[in-house]
Amino acid sequence: MAYGAGVGDKQFVVVDGKEEKRYDGILEGTLIFSPDSKQVGYGAKVGDKNVVVVDGEEGRQYHVIGTLIFSPDSKRVAYRAGVSDKRFVVVDGKEEKQYDVTGEGTLIFSPDSKRVAHVARVGDKRFVVVEGIEGRQYDGVGRPIFSLDSERLGYADRVGDDQFVVVDGIEQKHYDGIGEGAPVFSPDSKRLAYAAKVGNKWFVVVDGKEGKPCDGIGEGTAIFSPDSKRVAYVAQVGNKQFVVVDGEEGKQYNGIGDFMFSPDSKQMAYAAFVGDKGFAVVDGEEGRQYDGILESTPLFSPDSRRVAYGARLGDKWFVVVDGKQGNQYESIGGLIFSPDSKRMAYAAREDDTWFVVEDGREGKQHNGIMEGTPIFSPDSRQMVYVAIVGDKQFVVVDGIEGKQYDGIGKGTLIFSPDSWWMAYVAGAHGKEFVVVDEIEGKQYDAVVKGGRIIFDFPDGLHYLARKANEIYLVEEKIK
Fold it and tell me: In total, how many domains does the chain have?
């Protein structure tokens, strides 16, 4: 439990019922919890100075402090600080070197939490600092990006009119421009790609090798396959777009929609458009043309053997699964395969009523289906969604309706990893609480938005909740 309180002209934080030190103020918006919800940090004011407090441990006082960040494993904390006109980063309570400016919204931990990087400025020069080690100074520096294994670091730089990517401290070739979000690391962290420009021509650079020049590169630059062996991107020549996979150009179309590799990395699918018609392309084979294709589709099943997408003929929408067209509806959404790939479900609307369609079978009609549902349990045995009837919402599990509430927290529906338990946030009579297998927990003013229900031991879970100005770390045993 943690909350801010005040007595007279003093403010303080109460953690688990114990008052921490009183300060001249608690800095607004600085009270944060670690990713595991078990640690609390905040900024406090002492006269004309500021101080960071983490788990009751007070750091050094500074004129300025920035936003705190916890590492992904919740064991480390970092923030920007300033004394007079100098700025620096404080990591685990230790001050790094002072600069004219530091952080600039770029302070990040590596995925394994072992490394920290930020951008600093001295005069009109900028550079990346990793674990206290300064990189080369440039006229401009992009946001640092760690590889997934945390071993590599890349970012875009600028010297005069030249732009280039720096990876592992080594400058790559200079170009007239570098695409946004550069570079992109492969899932195994061994490869990288980015878009570059010479004159008015763009191309993708993969592992240092330049692709064929074109007039533009699609948003998102490039994607790697899950096994890191393949790479794809959308290129444009004139008013035509096409997908390039492993250097091989696909057929040109008026437009390309979402594109993706299959989970086994062997297949590529995307939506393509010619004139006013849209269709799915799977491994270069065009499907039937329709009047529209649903955004964020096609979709592969987890085992890569099935493909589904939403399509429209006239004003009617339907789902095409394994090449077979389903029933037509006024609207559809939320397409999802079960983890074992055997089941497929989505929400549909007809005659102003909503229902879930599972493997072609229509469920009970409701006034609405909450966005982000249906979902399947990890073992694929249960299919769950949130239904809306009038001003009430409730959870439906395999067709069985749960208790009706004033509201169900969007995105809060979650199964335990072993699929034994299901939990969600519900609201009634101005209070919120967590429901576990239809058993209601203690009521609070709110279950903290942005927090998560976390199943972190065999017969229990934890989450954050608020009562008045108090924030609690709630641990519940499953009964």
Answer: 1
